[in-house]
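Recall the central idea of this unit: under ordinary conditions, the amino acid sequence of a chain determines the structure it adopts. In this exercise we apply that idea directly, starting from the sequence alone.
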Amino acid sequence: VNGELAGKIYVFDSEGNYKEYTDNGLNGKIDTIEGFYINDQGKLIKYTSDNNANGIAEKIEESKYNKDGNLVKKILEIDSDEDGKIDMILAKYFGQQGNIIKKTHDGNANGIAEYIDEFEYNTNGDLVKKIYQTDLDEDGKYENIVVNEYGADGKLVKSTTDDKNGLCVFDYVNDDTLKSFTCDHDKDGKADFTSENTFDSDGNIVQQMSDYDGDGNPERVVEHKYDSEGNLIYSKTYCDYNSDGEVDKVWDEVNMCL
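Accordingly, the structure predicted from this sequence is:
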């Protein structure tokens, strides 16, 4: 059974699957062909896209459902050079609430994903954690892992990075304001660097403390003063260059004490 609209021709089979042929220029030549394949429940299980109508689909997307008819997985295969071989595979996995719980990116379609993102939600369906994992050399081991954790208001409260530079933890307030920062560069379980901000009741940073060697004695302390309207009046930096607990120099400005 065929159907036709301006610039489009629809061809249906007996099972409800159909192809859409599009003549974008209305010149009598088909420019794109899209295929839609439907299961017995009327759900789309496969979609194909042939952008230049040469008979080779550049994109093939398959959808998987559980026994209750809920979407659980989508796989997108891309043949960008139209040689009949898949160049890239992208996959999405869905949880019971319909939220994406995992995404994978296999950039050369060899079955090993270089990028894996995972998502966790609370019982209300709110995002509470994102995990980004990278395996660029495809050896099955992650070179980089980033874990972001979110509060009840959806704002970022904590971020952890694990890569060649070490294990670092960032704690936030108000989504983008850093509260503290700790790094264990050699991953021996001891912090090699710590930085912490202290705030007043209005949310202004009044003190910044930095411990460059992780010995518990800050080498740098910066104090900020504000007027009644929250405008910064001045900043002062106290430097303890040898980390002996005694101030070696005071700067009437922000200084890194290096």
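The chain is about 0% helix and 50% strand.
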